[in-house]
What does this fold into?
Amino acid sequence: MQQTLEILDLAQKRPVMVEDLALLHEKERQTPGSVRYSIRRYRKHTQWDIEDVGMISYNYKKSEPSENSLELKFCITGNMYCNGKSYECGECKAGMSKNCVAKEETVDVLHFTFLTEHLQQFVKSTRSTSFTNRVLSFKHNTSFSKMLPLCSRTRMSLESLLNNTYIESLENIYVNAQTQMLLLYSLECMLGDKEEEVFGACKFLTNDVDRDKILKARDILLQNIGEPITIKNLSRRVAINECYLKKGFKEIFGTTIFDFYQSQRMEHAKYLLYEKGLSVTEVSLMLGYSSISHFSTAFKKHTGLKPCELLLR
It folds into this structure.
């Protein structure tokens, strides 16, 4: 569940409330010595503003090599899930799926964990010093996470995994083939042969300690949505230079600290107003605004609507 919440937090740009997650479908599989994967499909709330996101995480533990792994995490939205499949929906059988009342729009979370013995088989030369080879053979000695661009090929593989109709052994063969393609596309998009392609100008992010400080800074922002915090104060709390904090945050999350924090506040405001039914005054105070007008201005800039207009919908 924690892995699900992590990628959903990034996709929704605000903390996900566990009570908001209505699970429609869940599948978990493990191919011995190869890959573990899970697919969780949730009902999409009408007020959720979720982006499609992907992430690659390289987990290296020098003292526990058996725990080394490479993870791919994706959150995609806009798909439809048909509950009618379980009872042979008459509309679908008649070829009238557009009228199917059992279909629901979903937010889909897919998580893949590739094991060391599986990845190492792809390394043809142990003498190669390319970044890709060092990752696949787990000779790169620092963990890292990086957002993944979702190219058309990646999307096609994800769609195939969500919507295939294979069963039993044929399903295993099909899923295995698609997961290999996802691994290929992800490595091709993000790793290449140069470490700089992953870390850009932020070479300090190759250090586990500094990278964890950036991740901790994000957690602090999420935990203090109603208590505005300065970058100086944030850098002190995570014990990292302000410049490194700003550069590292932008590199990992693709946005500035201010824009991320402001977006989180406004998304949380939408949740409190629409889902929880709080008043504009109550939400303004909860988010630490000095006046309702300041809150309304910020809210409209982010959503295009005044808070009172959202309540009328």
Remarks:
- The longest helix spans residues 168-190.
- The first strand starts at residue 23 and ends at 31.
